[in-house]
Design brief:
By secondary structure, the protein is an alpha+beta fold. It has 20 helices and 15 strands. Helix 9 packs across helix 11. It starts with a helix and ends in a 7-residue tail after the last helix. Residues 1-17 form the signal peptide. Belongs to the bacterial solute-binding protein 1 family.
């Protein structure tokens, strides 16, 4: 099934899909929803979309959107267009996508959360279980018909569609062509390259990635391990401490030889500065950094991740989407913005500004996407990616497994012991202990 999901993603990126369909609905339901009295309880459903019509926003509405700093240029551009068209003010507040659900748990009921949030699909189960987001009801049919099947499935939980798909993403290997004209095929090649290239005193390094972030460390687990079984749905089948996972973590720890820094010191900004400065040859990163590297005038390419212990390295893949806070004072205006910022035109604008790969099938078929060699590098990596589990128990994974990687990297802890400890913590949380927040 995992292979089918990945093939669906590839098809979405390379096959022109028909887009459209009849979008009928009940305008009276939508208009009635617009007149709902705002309270600090979750908002009511808005009804369904009438063909060719937008939902009616609340009078005097203004919106707050949470988004990461990498996406700020797009959000500010699309918010300006939205305000010009609808007269609704949109404010931006910087908050990483991975942190939004946790913050919404406390800020949502208190009326302090953003009206529109953005997060990867692995957080969806947790958000739904906590009652934090509203279904994508009014624009459901359009969202389903316009976006790839993978994207639609990823933002749907227990049969209900919640998200407004915006982009599909994974990470791959960026390489500076001035330093390495060809991308390395194996990690062993990078280690050999580092022997003659590295000079820590001059901030010259062969390879960097966010060493302390399990999202980017999953490839070392993937060569023989997994997170949850049954395609990420079985919380009782944890594959993070299999023999293959242990060997992968050992290899991870050995790479400190070519990157002699503490895991917490290898940040996105540090990597970006070195890569754009010409002293970092290889960077494992996502499409969100394309715009920065282009702006810096670096001649770079993107290729699949190098093999690990002779095996293909699978990356995590995910779908980012807009969601409407169920405690928003202006749920209709929030729905309207989520739709406006996720149309084909908006996704192409996002691709143009930040490099985000569209989830919309017509947008991915656009020549500006199809003729882009860099995007093709990400597509190749998608072919060997693993969709992140979206069950609520995924929230119990991140901290324990990150600690295991950190202990191996920073303290030289035994890989098997570190993974066994992490898996036990995850099991305890899944079986009744308080879920990781």
């Amino acid at each position: 099934m995992k292979k089918m999901l990945v093939l669906t993603m590839i098809a979405a990126l390379f096959v022109i899909a028909a887009c459209g369909g009849n979008n009928s609905g009940n305008t009276n339901s939508a208009n009635n929803a617009a007149n709902n009295t705002a309270t600090n309880a979750p908002a009511n459903n808005a009804g369904s979309e009438a063909e060719g019509e937008d939902i009616t926003p609340e009078e005097g509405a203004s919106l707050l959107v949470w988004e990461s700093k990498e996406e700020r240029p797009f959000i500010e551009a699309i918010a300006k267009e939205f305000t010009e068209k609808y007269g609704i003010e949109v404010k931006f507040e910087e908050l990483g996508a991975a942190d939004q659900v946790n913050k919404l748990i406390s800020d949502g009921p208190a009326g302090l959360g953003a009206d529109v949030v953005v997060f990867p699909h692995d957080n969806l189960g947790k958000a739904v279980s906590a009652g934090l987001i509203l279904p994508n009801d009014f624009y459901e049919e359009q969202s389903k018909s316009e976006n790839s099947e993978l994207a639609v499935n990823a933002v749907t939980y227990e049969g209900v569609m919640y998200g407004y798909p915006r982009s599909v993403e994974t990470y791959a290997l960026f390489y500076n062509k001035a330093l390495s004209p060809e991308a390395p095929k194996t990690f062993e090649e990078i280690v050999e390259f580092a022997k003659t290239f590295n000079d820590p005193n001059a901030n010259k390094f062969a390879l960097m990635w966010e060493v302390g972030n399990f999202y980017f460390n999953y490839p070392f687990i993937s060569t023989g391990g997994y997170v949850y079984g049954d395609n990420g749905t079985n919380k009782d089948d944890i594959g993070l401490n299999t023999e293959g996972a242990v060997e992968g973590l050992k290899f991870y720890g050995s790479l400190k030889e070519i990157l002699p820094m503490n895991s917490g010191d290898v940040t996105y900004d540090i990597k970006k500065g070195l890569f754009t400065g010409g002293t970092l040859a290889f960077d494992i990163n996502g499409p969100w950094t394309i715009a920065d590297y282009k702006a810096a005038g670096i001649d770079f390419g993107v290729a699949p991740l190098p093999t690990i212990n002779g095996q293909p390295a699978s990356s995590f893949s995910g779908i980012k989407a807009f969601y409407v806070n169920s405690y928003s004072k202006y749920p209709n205006a929030a729905r309207l913005f989520a739709r406006f910022a996720s149309t084909k035109e908006a996704q192409l604008k996002d691709f143009e500004i930040t490099g985000a790969i569209p989830a919309n099938t017509e947008a991915t078929a656009d020549p500006s996407v199809q003729n882009n060699e860099i995007v093709k590098g990400f597509v190749e990596q998608f072919n060997q990616s693993t969709p992140m589990p979206s069950i609520p128990e995924m929230g119990n994974v991140w901290s324990p497994i990150a600690a295991a990687f950190s202990d191996v990297w920073n303290s030289g802890k035994d890989a098997k012991e570190a993974l066994d400890n992490a898996v036990q913590q995850i099991k305890d949380a899944n079986n009744g202990a308080t879920a990781a927040q």
